[in-house]
Amino acid sequence: MDFLTTAEISEKWGISRRCVVVLCDEGRIGGAVQKGSMWLIPQNAQKPIDGRKRENKKSKLTI
Q1: Is 27 within the bounds of a domain?
Q2: 10 Å Cβ neighbour count for 24?
Q3: What is the mean pLDDT of residues 4-32?
Q4: Nearest of 33, 39, 34 to residue 20 by alpha carbon
Q5: Which of 5, 9, 11, 54 is least surrounded by Cβ atoms within 10 Å, i.e. has the fewest?
Q6: In terms of DSSP H, where are the helices of the chain?
Q7: pLDDT for position 24
Q8: What is the pLDDT of residues 33-57, one digit of tens each?
Q9: Residue at 56 is within a domain
Q10: CA 61 from chain center: how many Å?
């Protein structure tokens, strides 16, 4: 399995390196492992859904 760094993933997904680190810290990227202070992320990892966007939030209204 090939791994990418946070810099490579941030470029691939179009988000900041810091955002990738936060996603790793929160356990939202499957298969990500930390080696020292560096995160290694599987090359085929899927970008987590951004919960800040309205279309990605689950509706809290029930009928």
Answers
A1: yes
A2: 19
A3: 96
A4: 39
A5: 54
A6: 6-13, 17-25
A7: 96
A8: 999 999 999 999 999 988 777 776 6
A9: no
A10: 28
